[in-house]
Amino acid sequence: MNPHRRSPFVLLMTFLVYFFLYAPIFVLITYSFNASKTNIMFEGVITHFGPTQLVDGNITQSPCGPFHWFCELGKNKEVINAAKNTLTIAFISTFSATVIGTLAALALQRYKFRLKAFSELSLYIPIVIPEIVMGIGILTLFSQLFTFLNNSLGLTGNMRLALGLGTVIVSHITFSVPFVTLVVRARLQGFDQSFEEAAMDLGANELTTFWRVTLPMLLPGVLSGALMAFTLSLDDFVITFFTNGPGSTTLPIYVYGLLRRIITPQVNALSTVWILVVFSTVLLLQWLQNREAKG
């Protein structure tokens, strides 16, 4: 029996698994080129360039050809604002979570203190509990805190504290920090502190040693944690749903709103763009992790 021969059953199961995972994505991408405006049935791809004509609910021609719905997406100010909010939240929360998570990983790995065991255990709580539970908890916290501060400080009108972009950013930092901490701490497991000791023997102080020796050696782990936090922030819906306010709508929230009203191929076009962005980010994350493993 050839040990390198693959079982037909294993090949079939592998194909079915991948088909189950990726077939919906391919269908979604295909429908983003749909000539029908209703998006209920696939009426074919828009193949002609020219003035837009609506015939029996179908788009027969478009200045953008098959990319008609992508062009319509670019003209939608609500989508652009939602994309700006999403990227703003993702970048700020990722930077903050990366700084906090890296410092937390260093502290947990190198120092002993009374609450160390509790601190390590608490890192897993935001990861294992359901997002809806965490979202309700954060919403309750913000609601009670803002009510207390508004009443205590006598804030009125535009000065009153309320849900918005800031609360979403704080929420994203909260659930991103544990992921960054665990990734960076995994990198620290194989860290050789003799490099730091050599740098300090040569006259470098602790801050210089951190910037010139420690951080460059931890950089693959730090970047992996940052990209993971960035991806989680881009895709988050549940926690954002509970903590957003006026003017802080993100793309996942916007897509959910569209699905409650009317489904057009514009939703598929938006989802296609978002899939490409997230997929590219995940590929970069995987590349960094492979590079870290080889290093």
Distance between the termini: 38 Å
Helix content: over 70%
Number of strands: 2
The biggest sheet, with number of strands, parallel, antiparallel or mixed sense and barrel status, is: 2 strands, antiparallel
Count of alpha/pi helices: 12
- Tell me the radius of gyration: 25 Å
CATH superfamily of the domain at 76-261: MetI-like
Give the second-level CATH assignment, the architecture of the domain at 76-261: Orthogonal Bundle
Percent of residues in β-strands: under 5%
Rough outline: globular
- The structure class reads mainly alpha
pLDDT < 50 stretches: none
Mean pLDDT: 82
CATH fold topology of the domain at 76-261 = MetI-like fold
Order of helices and strands: HEEHHHHHHHHHHH
Trace the largest sheet across and list its strands. Answer: 1-2
CATH class of the domain at 76-261: Mainly Alpha
Give an overview of the whole structure.
This protein has a domain of 186 residues: MetI-like (MetI-like fold, Orthogonal Bundle). The protein is globular. It is built from twelve helices and two strands, in the order αββααααααααααα. The chain is mostly helical and 295 residues long. A two-stranded antiparallel ribbon has the order 1-2. A hairpin with a 2-residue loop joins strand 1 and strand 2.
